[in-house]
Amino acid sequence: MIVDRSDRLVALTREYAAFRRAKGQSDTRAAWGHLERAHIVAQPLPLAHLRAHLAMLRYAASVGDTREVFGQILRLGLAVPGRLPVGNTGRARISAFAPMAVPADLARFVEGDRP
């Protein structure tokens, strides 16, 4: 199934809004979860992919997570078009090259990206 770009952008908008709500409620775990989901959806779009990593970098800095800040700086350099690990959440705590299980509700956004 090919996902329309506008469907992908709607999903990204939804995840970023949920991120902002969680951040506003100081729910760090949920905030990271929504940024990770945004990353999965954004991967096939180069600018959206960079935006996901920039959002992660800013959030890591705002919560004082030095490891994540440095990991996101590294990932900004890697966030270029090419073969991307499907389902990777984009966090510094996991390998930037590891494919990961995709949440069922996001599978339609990555089906065409599988090797």
Number-wise, the strands total 0
Total number of distinct structural domains: 1
What does the largest sheet look like?
none
User: Which word captures the global form?
Assistant: globular
* Order of helix and strand elements from N to C terminus: HHHHH
Please give the alpha-carbon distance between the first and last residues.
Answer: 15 Å
Q: What is the number of helical segments per DSSP (H or I, 4+ residues)?
A: 5
Query: What is the residue-averaged pLDDT?
Result: 88
What structural class do the secondary elements suggest?
Answer: mainly alpha
Oligomer: single chain
Cα-atom radius of gyration:
13 Å
Keywords summarizing the entry:
60% helix, 5 helices, globular, single chain, 115 residues, mainly alpha
3D structure, described in words:
The chain is mainly α and 115 residues long. The protein has one domain. The chain contains five helices and no strands. It has helices at 5-24, 28-42, 46-62, 66-78, 107-110. The longest helix is centred in the N-terminal third of the chain and has 20 residues, at 5-24. The chain is globular and about 35 Å long.
